[in-house]
Amino acid sequence: MSQATKCLILLAVIAFFFVTELIPLAITAMSGAIACGLLGFIPLKQVFSGLSNSTVVLFAGMFVVGASMFYTGLAQAIGNKVVGLVGTAENSLMFGLMTVGTVLSAFLSNTGTAACLLPVALGICASAKIPASRQLMPLAFACGWGGICTLVGTPPNILANGALQAAGMADKQFGFFEWGLIGVPLSIAGMLYMMFVGKYLLPAAQLDADQEIEQEVEANEPNSTKMAVSGIILLVVVAVMGSGTKLITLEMTAIIGAMVCVLTKCLTEKQAYASIDWVTIFLFAGMMPVSSAMAKTGAGKMIADWTVGLMGSSPSPMVLTAVLFILSCTLTQFMSNTASAALLCPIGIAIAQSLGADPKPVLVAIATAASCAFASPVGTPPNTLVLGPGNYKFMDYVKAGTGLIIVCFVVTLVICPMMWPFFPGK
């Protein structure tokens, strides 16, 4: 049995335990990483490499920065202001959060955007007396589809340009805002779906962690000075993350912000440690080696080759686009969107060229699908980030995200041939 086949079997086992939650999600993820090492899919020294991944460090730092806003009472104060402006209607709050998440993610890191908006969203939900579980997943999804809108919004978009250049078609590369032709319709469709359909598939769990924090903030008289300091820290962190500076990384910015929160006594050291959601940390860190194993063993390529083989020797461009969207979207639920796009973009170009078709609509479908990691908490960092604070289960993502993926699939198949014809000039 090949390593690729073994890796696929392991992935199926991991998926089974994710869906059934017979054991905690974090244990499933870390067990998968250990299995990858024991089976020789990755070097043993890389089994726990996910714990040092920059995104994991970013998570930890932003959890602390966000918690400082709660312990100082700032999050609740912001929440009260927002609720005063838009009211307490669930749809209006959801629309507001998704709009902000979409716009910011188009230009900033979707992970950074979700991390910065998370504490604000929790504060708004507390003030509006709405369970955070009804708002955090839509926010995470918005950060996902928002990145599709520009060339720099998400790595798959950049990879599509790289694939065109590598294939000798640099003149066909996508423009910066060209991605908005698909990203904007997807964003609008996604918002409508979540507000009128998806919200009914979300849990309405009251969060014990939020209640504990709220009780402690009643217990402690709000300090206007500390609230101001906490707010300034968040604004500086957001500004630095959004500046695109090469002098400091996102994770360094988050950790510095967290340390300053403790040094300025916005929260205690003990509160800082307690604010880190370790389920999120270990879940994401455990799946990083599994994603690497899929790429190194050829398991991802095996899935791609098998799927492409099902289409026959001369599939229609529309069938090709649909199949590659489904394949890319399936892979990205468990692999990084970057890895999924990097694997499939060259394949899509090659098949499109063999049919005499323009590869651009095929690449748009692949890259877009790679960003549609809505049906799994491990498909994209924003989904993982809200897992703990939203008290979500794996199946909550499947229930709410599957329908959203179908909407994105339909929109993509309608928009792609219109904006990027398969046979331009004919």
- Tally of alpha and pi helices: 20
Oligomer: single chain
Shape: globular
What is the number of strand segments?
0
Descriptive notes:
- The chain has 426 residues and is mostly helical.
- It has helices at 3-20, 25-38, 54-71, 74-86, 90-107, 110-128, 136-146, 155-166, 180-196, 208-219, 224-243, 250-263, 269-275, 278-297, 299-310, 317-332, 337-354, 360-370, 381-387, 394-419.
- Helix 5 (90-107) packs antiparallel against helix 6 (110-128) and helix 7 packs antiparallel against helix 9 (180-196).
- It is globular and about 70 Å long.
- The model has no long low-confidence stretch (mean pLDDT 84).
What is the compact description of this entry?
The protein has helices at 3-20, 25-38, 54-71, 74-86, 90-107, 110-128, 136-146, 155-166, 180-196, 208-219, 224-243, 250-263, 269-275, 278-297, 299-310, 317-332, 337-354, 360-370, 381-387, 394-419. The chain is mainly α and 426 residues long.
